[in-house]
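Hi R.,

Here's the chain you asked about this morning:
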Amino acid sequence: MNTSFSQTLKKLRKERGLSQIQLGKQMFVDNSTIARWENGSRMPDAAMLTRLSKVLNVDISVLLSDAAESDESFNIIIVDDNRPILSSSLMVLEKAVPDAAIMGFNWPQEAIEYAKMNRVDLAILDIELGTASGLDLCRKLLEINPCTKVVYLTAYPDYALDAWNTDACGFIVKPLTPENVGRQLKKLHYPFSRGGVDE
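And the predicted structure, written out as tokens:
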């Protein structure tokens, strides 16, 4: 348990007049993630520390001095250009896989930059990302790390055939629910051994 970091984060958040819910929305994570960071049971990774420094308007060295990266968690990213859908999907993932480190992105390039700096075990990608394509993003993520498992999340079942041509592992029709997350995790080439989903 890292009490030094948790105390620093809580102090900075309160100084900015932010609730855990407000900070969570700005960080694109569920407020339960903020709560875990503040009680010392979970630590943000390097990319999240960078985002925290920007949101809290503090030099990253202040956070880095108290934080230590952890490679024990499964790293999950979800990419959706619709902010409300991204927020609700993050909440579902937090409940379905509570021990995972989960990051949400609105833009493909943000996800690519994150994947270059961090191991991504599972990527959940919207297929239509504004002018970009989740299919192309899948290919780029697999170029960075061929071990990344990709599951598509879309409102359009007609994309299924194209999706299977990208080495993806699964396909979920929106909305994301704990049940369809659980089904997809069981279908992965290797199972997730931690979290709230029965294996």
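The mean pLDDT is 82.

Let me know if you need anything else.
M.
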